[in-house]
């Protein structure tokens, strides 16, 4: 993605620009891969956080969407989404009440459970409302995050089966590039293990008398390959819609497929060995630390067009661009293009973004930005 000088002059920096045509190509590519594998695609909206892009995904063939939080799901429902899975433990009376209200407004809402305590509270809330809630049980397949361990999955599923107001229809997991409980750079083996673990969990549940319909797995680094195992019937990648530098390192994207760029203006050049841009930690995400294994990211964003430059440190409103050779060569007023390391957190830092479509730029609100509940 490359903007003309005239387009760059339209930007109010620091900002993000999204190439809609590239995003649409990425949507189509993932949908075709899922369809070819005979697997449903339920993309995670955590990356774009905008109903506009969710609508594109559903129009292309996605069978609903995935959200992390109920507040995100509310925004997506207002934007026309009718089939939503909230892949996050539904714990907290405030959260459950909002989910129940949302369930009354759309065709299908699926909630997540990973504990007996959570299931009991959800059951009582559904009973009080005289309704049945569709739920999926999360399985911990090695990421060490949420999810019931595989050896306790049958016990929890049997307990939920007795709950009249919860309808357990599936299991799901988030595993990504984990193999035998440790980070890996082998996408294929990680995906095969993910498929095997979920298929084995489903088999154990069936033997115990718990029938499920949905086996959901697969993030952007492993989604296509998990689908190709034939052991799951749904994948939930998110980052693929825009791609980022992280996915290029994880061997599932090319630089030419990345649909998002930061643009920032140089505001100070008092020293030859560093310059200051107008975006700091309130603009650029800091969830990926530069220079650490296994991928050794070259800064908090990748400066395009000059391998000598690094976004190496930041304050709240100041980004410090340093130079490997000791001379940045930058000038005050110069506008830099940078590739996001992790695009999901990058988008969530912005109240609005610029959309580039058919050579024209327009501003677009990030509707679900900051939706944390």
Quick overview:
By secondary structure, this protein is an alpha/beta fold. The chain contains eleven helices and 20 strands. The two termini are 34 Å apart.
What does this entry look like structurally?
Helix content is 30%, strand content 26%. It has 373 residues and is α/β, with parallel strands linked by helices. α5 (93-103) links the parallel β4 (83-89) and β5 (108-113). α4 packs parallel to α5 (93-103) and α5 packs across α6 (116-129). The radius of gyration is 22 Å and the shape is elongated. The mean pLDDT is 97.
Task: Present the secondary structure layout.
Layout: H1 5-8, E1 15-19, H2 20-36, E2 40-41, H3 51-60, E3 65-67, H4 70-78, E4 83-89, H5 93-103, E5 108-113, H6 116-129, E6 133-140, E7 148-149, H7 153-161, E8 166-172, E9 178-179, E10 182-183, H8 187-207, E11 214-217, H9 223-228, E12 234-235, H10 245-249, E13 260-271, E14 274-277, E15 301-303, E16 309-314, E17 319-323, E18 335-340, H11 343-348, E19 352-357, E20 360-365
Parallel strand pairs: 1-19, 2-12, 3-4, 4-5, 5-6, 6-7, 6-8, 8-11, 11-12
Antiparallel strand pairs: 1-13, 9-10, 13-14, 13-18, 14-17, 15-18, 16-17, 19-20
Helix pairs in contact: 4-5, 5-6
């Amino acid at each position: 993605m490359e903007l003309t000088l005239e387009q760059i002059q339209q930007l109010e920096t620091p900002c993000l620009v999204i190439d809609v045509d590239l995003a649409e190509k990425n949507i189509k590519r993932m949908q075709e891969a899922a369809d070819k594998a005979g697997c449903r695609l339920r993309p995670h909206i955590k990356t774009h956080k905008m109903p506009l892009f969710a609508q594109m995904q559903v129009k292309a063939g996605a069978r609903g969407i995935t959200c992390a939080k109920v507040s995100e799901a509310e925004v997506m429902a207002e934007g026309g989404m009718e089939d939503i899975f909230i892949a996050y433990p539904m714990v907290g009376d405030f959260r459950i009440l909002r989910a129940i209200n949302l369930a009354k407004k759309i065709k299908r809402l699926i909630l997540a459970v990973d504990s007996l305590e959570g299931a009991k509270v959800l059951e009582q809330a559904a009973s009080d409302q005289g309704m049945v809630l569709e739920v999926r049980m999360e399985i911990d397949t090695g990421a060490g995050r949420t999810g019931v361990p595989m050896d306790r999955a049958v016990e929890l599923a049997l307990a939920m089966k007795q709950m009249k107001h919860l309808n357990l229809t599936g299991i799901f997991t988030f595993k990504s590039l984990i193999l035998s409980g440790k980070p890996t750079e082998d996408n294929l083996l990680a995906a095969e293990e993910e498929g095997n673990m979920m298929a084995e969990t489903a088999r154990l549940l069936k033997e115990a008398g718990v029938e499920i319909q949905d086996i959901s797995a697969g993030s952007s680094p492993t989604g296509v390959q998990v689908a190709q195992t034939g052991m799951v019937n749904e994948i939930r990648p998110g980052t693929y819609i825009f791609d980022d530098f992280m996915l290029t390192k994880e061997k599932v994207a090319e630089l030419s497929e990345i649909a998002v760029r930061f643009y920032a203006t140089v505001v100070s050049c008092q020293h030859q060995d560093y310059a200051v841009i107008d975006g700091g930690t309130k603009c650029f995400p800091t969830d990926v630390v530069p220079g650490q294994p296994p991928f050794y990211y070259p800064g908090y964003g990748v400066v395009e067009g000059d391998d000598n430059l690094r976004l190496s440190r930041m304050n709240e409103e100041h980004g410090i661009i340093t130079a490997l050779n000791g001379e940045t060569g930058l000038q005050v007023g110069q506008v830099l293009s940078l590739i996001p390391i992790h695009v999901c957190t990058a988008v969530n830092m912005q109240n609005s973004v610029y959309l580039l479509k058919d050579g024209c730029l327009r501003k677009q609100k990030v509707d679900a930005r900051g939706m944390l509940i």
